[in-house]
Amino acid sequence: MKEIFSITGIFDRFTGIENEPEDIPENEEYTLDEYMELLNEYREGEADILINIATIYFQDENTVDSLKYLEMAIRIYEELDYIDKKALVMDIMGDIYKNTNEVRTALEYYKESFKLYSAANSDNKDDLLKKLRETEQEIKSEDSSEANFIVKHEDLPSVENISSDYEYISQDVDDIISMLKGATTYISYTKSKKPMEELENAYEMSNGIGDISAKATILMIMGDVSLKNSQPVEALKYFKEGLESFKQLNDQSGKASAMLLIGTTYYITGNMDKVPENFRKSIEILRNLNDVEGEAKAIKLMNAIYEE
Question: How many other CB atoms are found less than 10 A from the CB of residue 229?
Fold first, then answer.
């Protein structure tokens, strides 16, 4: 990560933009407008400090906290209506996500940044448009590769083997699902006569009101139901879609859970070469979150898979 930092200079674009608030002469009276202007200067200074903290975290290879402080800076720029600076921070967050191979999340940040650059008539919009197009092409290539991967592995294990493998780890999978926000409510739908129909209705409702967190959790449970029904290809689709929603929310815990379930699905399809990377990244996230319980559940699931 430090090499990426030095090569790409992700945060270099902030160099020199910090504005020091002017000193306040003692015993001088101010009008309301002057106080508001002074307050805005301090708020802008606060945002600049948050970006400096994010830079240090990035240099220390801690992208989770780096992104957290950048989000805090964005909220200040929103309050100040500093469109150009908000666009720049979102542009940089896109770069960070891209450098950590989260290209779909990077694309969402690039799109939002491009809108803001365009609204501000910024010169940066042309460079960003180029990055945006490159990222879209990268995703298309990735999707094509994944599609080919599934076609090449169409010869899945028998339904009996899939069912047996899932049954062996089902409790561990349920433990992972239980880590998700709101999971208890939606898990109850799986006990109905038509669980997928109930879950699809809940998904449409959540999608309609823009509740991305609920939508992501529902997708995870839909994937689990698909696994129970010996439909791992469908499960993988739901888990991957849910993962993208968690990334959009910067929900690290949800992201970790999704990657565990994706790794589990690859195990059930017999694609063991794709299992370790997903489990490794998931456990790394849980450790960064100091989620001891979550990490224990992840390791328990991983051990169950490799010990079978």
Answer: 16
Task: Work out the end-to-end distance of the chain between its first and last CA atoms, rounded to an integer number of angstroms.
Answer: 35
DSSP secondary structure, 61-129, as one string: T-HHHHHHHHHHHHHHHHHHT-HHHHHHHHHHHHHHHHHTT-HHHHHHHHHHHHHHHHHTT-THHHHHH
CATH 1.25.40.10 fits 150-307, yes or no: yes
Report the CATH superfamily, name and number, of domain 2-138: Tetratricopeptide repeat domain (1.25.40.10)
CA distance 159 to 171: 19
Domain ranges across the chain: 2-138, 150-307
Identify the CA nearest to 107 among candidates 129, 122, 86: 129
pTM of the model: 0.61
Q: Count Cβ atoms within 10 A of the Cβ of residue 27 and give its class: 0-12 exposed, 13-18 middle, 19 or more buried.
A: exposed
Nearest to 229 by CA among 154, 161, 163, 305: 163
Q: For residue 233, what are the contacts with CB-CB under 8 A and spacing of at least 6?
A: 150, 156, 269
Burial (CB < 10 A; 0-12, 13-18, 19+), residue 40, is middle
Q: What is the pLDDT along the chain (308 residues), one digit of tens a residue?
A: 444 444 456 777 666 555 555 555 555 678 998 999 999 999 999 999 999 999 999 999 888 899 999 999 999 999 999 999 999 999 999 999 888 878 888 999 999 999 999 999 999 999 999 999 999 998 888 766 665 555 344 556 777 777 788 888 889 999 999 989 888 888 988 888 899 999 999 999 998 998 999 999 999 999 999 999 988 889 999 999 999 899 888 899 999 999 999 999 998 888 888 888 899 989 989 988 889 999 999 999 999 988 76
Within 8 A by CB and 6+ apart from 253, the residues are 179, 285, 286, 289, 291, 294
